[in-house]
Amino acid sequence: MKDLWKTRSAPTPLQSSQLIPNPASAITSAAGSATSSPSKALGLKDQTLWSLEDNAKVFLASVIIYLTQRKQDLGSAVFDKDDSLAVDFVTAASNLRSACYDIPQQSLFDAKGMAGNIIHAIATTNAIVGGIIAIEAMKVLAGCQQACVTSFLRTEPSVVGSKRTGRMLGLIYGEKPSPPKPECMVCGKAQLHVTVNTETTTLGQLIDKVLKKRLAINIPSLNTLGGFWYEEGEDLEEDEAEASRILLPKTLASLPGGGLKHGTIVAVSDQSQAITVDLIITHQDVLDPEKHPDGFILEGSGPDAKQEQQAPEQQQATARGHPAEQQASAGRKKRSREEEAGDAAKLANSSHEQQQKKEENAKRRKQAADNTGAAADAADNVAVDLVNDGDNDGDNDDDVIEID
Known about the structure:
Distance between the termini: 111 Å
Number of helices: 13
Order of helices and strands: HHHHHHHEEEHEEHEEEHHHH
Shape: elongated
Number of strands: 8
Structural class: alpha+beta
Strand order of the largest sheet: 5-4-6-7-3-8
Strand content: 5-15%
């Protein structure tokens, strides 16, 4: 043990009789105080260093309180930064030990942060951030969302502003917020608000009138955080389909999982169209039947189905490096068979009228009538090709030729 203290000071034992000349009165009053904190009973401050006498008084008073008032914690007590008695005991005991080994002592505030692994907040930073949030909230409430900015608080001042507005040193830098990301789980999902009477509206009415009729959702799937689940689809088992059908005549408020009541968020999806939307339910007892004959109010921007993948021939064309203009032109020329048949009928009617005009004016405009007849014959041939769905370039697309 002697070799252990060759290069440093040996610990110095503390004598209670020297630390506390008259311990009985002060310790007894601190231990018997209505407050569970001996340091507060003795009038000690959290952020000042206590003397050795004060540490000894707090330590002994804490021991007395544990033995007399908190016997159930003996042997099983766990440090809790919100337990004032535990903080007092740890601070006083650690400071007394630090005095023995010549280690710098700590205030109760610092000891509490060390023992509780607390990173103390910077009041100035919190005040700045809170002020910025309040300013942006005022813009939203005033309907000036376009004026909102994303603010960054820097650790060192830097030059902000422009020549027009003036340059200055500042800690806050603002820029226009980025647009929502489609892949984001929060801002990338559409949200709709539906106002209904949840006590009278059934799940079947919600699905038929709102989801299928208004939102054009084919195969709806609904679920909530409360555990409610509804599914449709041919791939369901018979018992699963039956469990969903049983729910249709139930009112929204009486559904399992706490019901679809005021404030409930229902996740709606349609796998056939790759649509996802959050439906926020708002309860209202009475809706004006003249303004809202369907019995609900739907607000918000509806979801859009994701575009289907390119056809194989389009993917091959893209892979071969065709110019974008050629692909756009091919898309404009592609029509349905019904449109092609209509164009062919128009061309046929036009050629018939031209033929009649040619016969009436044969003598006076013979050459012009011949040219018109030739054009009409060419139009007839093109119309026949269109009706027969001709494909001359081998690209598996319907070829359409437009003639002025």
